[in-house]
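Now for our target.
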Amino acid sequence: MPTPDGRIPFLEPELPPLEDVEADLREIYASGVFSNGGPFDRRLAEGVCAYLEVAHCVPVASGTLGLMLAIRALARREREGRGGARPYVLLPSFTFPATALAVEWAGLEPMFCDIDPETWQPRLDRTRVEASAGRLAMILSCNTFGAPSDVSAWSELAASLDLPLAVDSASGLGGRYADGRRLGGAGVCEVFSMHATKTFGVGEGGLVTTPDPELARELERLRNFGLDESPVCEGPGLNAKLSEIHAAIACRALERHEEALAARRRVADAYRARLEPQGFAFQRLGELSPYQCVSVRLPEGVMRGPLRERLLSSGIETRTYFAPALHQQPRWKDCPRLQELETTEALCEGILSLPTSNRLSEADVERVCDALLRLV
């Protein structure tokens, strides 16, 4: 929905209405329980398990913290099981910096792989992964933009190499895999973000889902200073607990999430209907995502920089997720690569993310498309 000055913002945080949360806030204040795995934290975990049809869910204070804890727990298992550390985690370069930063915070290093040119998901190169397996502690796949990767193939490969597979599904809560299952049950664990910019946004927070009860217990300890019921610390940990206020907002958001998904998909369908016939390429299987934003690959020869400037002068905000890619950024330019990252670099040169929100009207979408087509 345009701002009072007529600008169409790129994203609009859309938390549940305050009046829906007010009673919950009163309950929290009356109880005096604001954190430490209170009733709303437990209610959220149970609700997510039911919604995603998964066995275990551990709420955390951010998606990045969820990645950090999951990678740390899996790396610890790997060291104990093999008697020594392998230094690298395989992940795509076409993702947000939080993914690689979480790898580093867990004491490991990124190794980057390329992506598929149509799905924009991590490209499975079995021969190269097998050749590098001796240096890998784990595989960290991504459901890029919340759309499904070929997680079955990655799971099979990881199992054949005796490597854990975790999945970064940051913007994917409510998305589905190609076989119809909701994201959340793949690999050893999946990690979601509840940042305000996500379709499932509560301000800040994250979720780790897993079929493994022992991993769930380890994550519970890790998010609570390494403690369980006892006050004695026997392992690593930090404070990654989700506050009761954020958990209460998330419970309300879960009640209306399907409605939010339907609104986003109407916006995305309208973009696709106007732009795809004109040479704009959309992510294959993107229709299975929750559409945090709608991203397109520009027609050949279109200069993105000048286009974005002219759109902005027309009151239309855009972004360039995920450009530059991680290997193009100073911190990770010297990290090892599974193969040449040609597809990643090509997509980064031409990707554009368009305004997306539940409140974006058909007329708003038409305005964006008209401006794009006129300028292109």
Summary: The chain has two domains: 18-255, 257-375. The domain at 18-255 is CATH 3.40.640.10 (Aspartate Aminotransferase; domain 2). The two ends are 24 Å apart (CA to CA). The mean pLDDT is 96.
